[in-house]
Amino acid sequence: MLSVRSATSALLLRTGTQIATVRAVPRVRSSPIRPCGSPPIRALSLSGCLCKKNKRSAWLEMTGGQNMDGSIEEVLAPLRLAVKEQGDLVRNLKAENAPEVDVNKAVAELKARKRILEAKELALQPKDDIVDRTKMEDTLKRRFFYDQAFAIYGGVSGLYDFGPVGCALKNNILQVWRQHFIQEEQILEIDCTMLTPEPVLKTSGHVDKFADYMVKDVKNGECFRADHLLKAHLQKLMSDKKCTAEKKTEMEGVITQMDNYTQQELADLFVQYNVKSPSTGNDLTPPISFNLMFQTSIGPGGNMQGYLRPETAQGIFLNFKRLLEFNQGKLPFAAAQIGNSFRNEISPRSGLIRVREFTMAEIEHFVDPNEKVHSKFSNVADLEIMLYSSKAQTSGQSAQIMRLGDAVEQGIINNSVLGYFIGRIYLYLIKVGVAKDKLRFRQHMDNEMAHYACDCWDAETKTSYGWIEIVGCADRSCYDLLCHARATKVPLVAEKPLKEPISFNFEANKGAIGKAYKKDAKLAMEYLAICDECYITEQEKLLNENGEFTIETEGKTFKLTKDMVNVKRFQKTLHVEEVVPNVIEPSFGIGRIMYSIFEHTFRIREGDERPTLPL
Amino acid sequence: MLSVRSATSALLLRTGTQIATVRAVPRVRSSPIRPCGSPPIRALSLSGCLCKKNKRSAWLEMTGGQNMDGSIEEVLAPLRLAVKEQGDLVRNLKAENAPEVDVNKAVAELKARKRILEAKELALQPKDDIVDRTKMEDTLKRRFFYDQAFAIYGGVSGLYDFGPVGCALKNNILQVWRQHFIQEEQILEIDCTMLTPEPVLKTSGHVDKFADYMVKDVKNGECFRADHLLKAHLQKLMSDKKCTAEKKTEMEGVITQMDNYTQQELADLFVQYNVKSPSTGNDLTPPISFNLMFQTSIGPGGNMQGYLRPETAQGIFLNFKRLLEFNQGKLPFAAAQIGNSFRNEISPRSGLIRVREFTMAEIEHFVDPNEKVHSKFSNVADLEIMLYSSKAQTSGQSAQIMRLGDAVEQGIINNSVLGYFIGRIYLYLIKVGVAKDKLRFRQHMDNEMAHYACDCWDAETKTSYGWIEIVGCADRSCYDLLCHARATKVPLVAEKPLKEPISFNFEANKGAIGKAYKKDAKLAMEYLAICDECYITEQEKLLNENGEFTIETEGKTFKLTKDMVNVKRFQKTLHVEEVVPNVIEPSFGIGRIMYSIFEHTFRIREGDERPTLPL
């Protein structure tokens, strides 16, 4: 069983970022749990590695960094250096066990530098590579791929209906998913309820920690997400010509640290910068924590609090015992679920990217922690995939195309199970229509990963919103099963037959000994049967060196040769060990995959303003 | 546009029954709207038509009533007669416009007699035809077809998870549904959100009327469905040996009238029979109305009340305009949706039959009310299906196998669109594994149908719970579109090009007239061009009788023969009429279909207690 460094705090350490396009992944485990009051440690991921003037050179750059456009790299060089210097500083501070406050400060600065580099990279990318989002969305809505739900009642933000074409596309995407994963990998698909009683989500940490800070207009009650509003307010102040350079620097510092503020610190900043409601100019309440789950009451009594699930994964963990039994008690095995999840966003924006109800497809691959090796990894080892490792990110480097096998061998990807799923996810996304040159896998940095996770990679696509996370793939160790087992006192473990160390004894050739010693043979046989291993080892050495050894028993001497006796090695299965499986979790946001496909396939005919979607 | 007899009251008139197996249909339109305080008028449907000793004779009976087991029919004959007599009485009262109270009383008695007949029929059926439910459910759970959700947390009643085999079966059932309906009928599939803002469900009537009465234990707050509890209490009293015959008759009367009581009457009965909590013996609160929708709050402000949808249909109605546009403005067309709906049952029982979260598949077929004819009806007209018409039910007769074409021709089924869907539903259910001899279509009786619906048939399967509704198929007229149009002021109509009545004029043969009258021909032509239809009719008659007619113009006479002139009939499209389409709604409860398949395919090997499911 893998140890969990700190089960109680482990869950608190995943956090969203302040960039909508990253945080808004329809429930990918790496982002939903945003701690209130605990220091958020997740970095942004808006960086781009495609900074070339045309696709050809972008491709060349991706395939190894050759033929880069010199002038662009010239602009980026100092920014890359700044990230690298800060990355080195963070590493040194950690190595020296520097005070946490110093490390956090340095990490925040590292993130800020990364963000500036990434923004510059995106700004320098060729303009013709960016889709005209307004035109695209207009086309999609006109042809009823999707549209706002309840439109004739005024609509509800964050809720969308898929029309006939969108629905057909979604069905196809899910059908391919089932073929590619469930069928090819022989995964156990299950179908759990969305209604979830409170104790389950209390255990998972969602009741306490799945929240964002918000402020309210004191008069009309309009709500705003605190970090979004503060950032927009500061940007407005900074754009004022009268704003001094000194003030600007100060405010830039606040934006940089946005993820790190406690509830009280945020409250103070709202006072300090005199933030009012942007719609009415009214005063605002201090920031309060708002849980992002939809609450309801199950049954008529009003005493069974429930929520709409924020992810499908919990249903799989709760059914672990039944699934293990279904798999005849053996590890590894995987279970999966396709279904809707819900997130009560404070102010949903960004169309299909940030919604309140969304379809997910999640796999939980349960594996013996001591055998984290995938037997089929060789099938994907030769794939060349754009990887943006943690190290590259903290060194100011670009994402690089790498052979998957090399990435696992070099330890960039923690183990071959994770590596296998990264390969399979890649193949799936290409199959359903994501553009190969707009897809990368970004590794979470140390400071954005939960304690219990040992490695985590997000599949990200490049869109007009920047790089957005569409699939998460995390090694979550044994955290979830352990939490539920503790809460319910039901052991969620697999039994693993334990083998005794290899042992050995004499194997006598009854015929040969009998032939040599006739009726005394029995004595020699009895003697050989009860030797201890130390003695056997010594005699084996003699047997190998001299071809014989001698024993004495009941006053008689026997010379035993190689044809009469040899040493047999064997192993016995004697005990059973309980093992809490580790979990590798690929988690797909179907709406975001669809959106990526829209952007990657939308074209406007040359010299023709009529847009077309080749679907 | 069809008139709606009473739009405000129409919705209130569908109600559930007191039998779990009927009411619990996972949202089939015909049952969910249970009015509080309004007289429920839906009959029970536990009747069975299979009262034979073996399948062979059951089949013969179904195929026309021959070869019936005489002794059983002897037992049933007086019961059938009793139903028929009461049915005649109800018809007479209605014909005489008798006071409503008298009609209601007679209808209640009719229902009671029907129920007794049905119970007897079921009791007389061969025992080997009934599945051993305990064994079957044990097998299904052991093999993880499905099991209670959140079991390691103690479970939540009415919530089930489907395991690998159940989930695969469900996927297959849905996949066949898509092929059979969406693809073969070219239906527009859409995918709407489950979260629904309150105004939508206020309009549809669910906020006010989708409720059951419940009573609460005054001390521990435990809740009971009022009608279920009262019935169980009375049955217990009646089973007491000391209970007088007089008392028994009285209580039987109460059970018979159960669906008809108002909130106050129910309250009085609870006092009169001194009903206490069956678990604790504590006092109970008076019956209160409990809305069956799960309530939640959308967005952070707490001011947008929302619910989890109780049916998928509303999403289709709200998207009507977009769908019509998608179909290029033309009727008829159909839209469909597959997805989960929710119903917060007071005390869910009966396993998969009555659950709080369930998957539905609904079709809304929009059709011009003046053209309720299905072009493909002939494809299904020759199907022989067991139909249990309203008339048969009120006459004490059995269900009868009928040719679908005959049922439509004879007006038993209202129109060929409804008939077509009944045929298609039948074919679908047989295809996925429902037993042909345990499937019937039962027509709603006048007094269980909403005012706005002109015909409604339920597909029912025979199970160990009796006959249960698994698909509803209703002609809902224009009710839903009209409600939403009124509430939103958005016209939900289709435009229908109007044709002028057939009109006619002279068609002159310019060449022939020119040849005959040279330069004067022009005069004749001008004259012919401006004749009124009355004059044309007269001259046409002459032309047909004499082969010629004569005209005079500008002092000149022209004799016109058949080769010079004829009368041309034509039609012009001049205006556009707005039409509110009617809706035919087949509505499938997927969980109930699955459950029926389980019962219809479960076998225990002869001489072997090990059960098998041939799936």
TrEMBL record, chains A, B:
Gene3D superfamilies: 3.30.40.230, 3.30.720.200, Bira Bifunctional Protein, Domain 2 (3.30.930.10), S15/NS1, RNA-binding (1.10.287.10)
Gene Ontology molecular functions: ATP binding; glycine-tRNA ligase activity; transferase activity
Main location: cytoplasm
One of the record's GO cellular component terms: mitochondrion
Superkingdom of this protein's organism: Eukaryota
SUPFAM superfamilies named in the record: Class II aaRS and biotin synthetases, S15/NS1 RNA-binding domain
Segments forming domain WHEP-TRS: 75-131
Cell location: Cytoplasm; Mitochondrion
PROSITE patterns: AA_TRNA_LIGASE_II, WHEP_TRS_1, WHEP_TRS_2
EC number: 6.1.1.14
Functional summary from the UniProt entry: Catalyzes the ATP-dependent ligation of glycine to the 3'-end of its cognate tRNA, via the formation of an aminoacyl-adenylate intermediate (Gly-AMP). Also produces diadenosine tetraphosphate (Ap4A), a universal pleiotropic signaling molecule needed for cell regulation pathways, by direct condensation of 2 ATPs. Thereby, may play a special role in Ap4A homeostasis.
Family: Belongs to the class-II aminoacyl-tRNA synthetase family.
Subunit annotation: Homodimer.
Name recorded for this polypeptide: Glycine--tRNA ligase
Organism of origin: Cyprinus carpio carpio
